[in-house]
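Lab notebook: predicted structure, single chain.

Context: the supervisor wants predicted structures on file for every construct in the current expression panel, including those that have not yet been purified. This is the next one on the list. No modifications to the sequence; it matches the entry in the shared construct table.
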Amino acid sequence: MSHDELARRLAAAVDAFRREGDMAALQGTLATLVQAHDAAALAAAAEPYRTMPEVAGPIFEKVVDADPDNAKALVALANAYWLAGRGPEKVGELASRAIAADPANRAGWHLWCLSESDPRERTIRWRQVVARFHDDDLARATLADSAASLAGAEKDPEALALAIEQYEILWSRAARPEQREALDKALTTLRAWTL
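Prediction complete. Output recorded below exactly as produced.
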């Protein structure tokens, strides 16, 4: 079966699943496709369905099994597991493997942070990501949010100072007036907190 035929069969299976909701039929088709194709072809065909854990999970399981150091596939599988609610331990393990395989893979770092359930430890992880990727404003915003939550929950003045610092940096980088307005509101609220 050619790559084009694989893509067509996968698209047809996904369309049928979306219409009918027949998980068994989808799983059967995926099992057949996974057995019949190599990891590279499967990864390419699954790319449009990365946010569908029902599709991405089984396909990227084969890709990771065939190529255990493929950071992109590890992240795709970790993301599928995250979306499917498979648990932070498995997601964290896959994210850690992705980071080890490719330390520049930001998505791996983000999933590594998200997989940490302890708020303080999660904040520490986001801080590490921001230190590594200075221009990653998504990580910086998540660090600021995480630190603000930690400050509120634990009455932690250091976490509050960290949140304010990160929101100020985001404010200085904001390109649109509505972004600055939202950040101004957050900063005003945080600066008024008494812990």
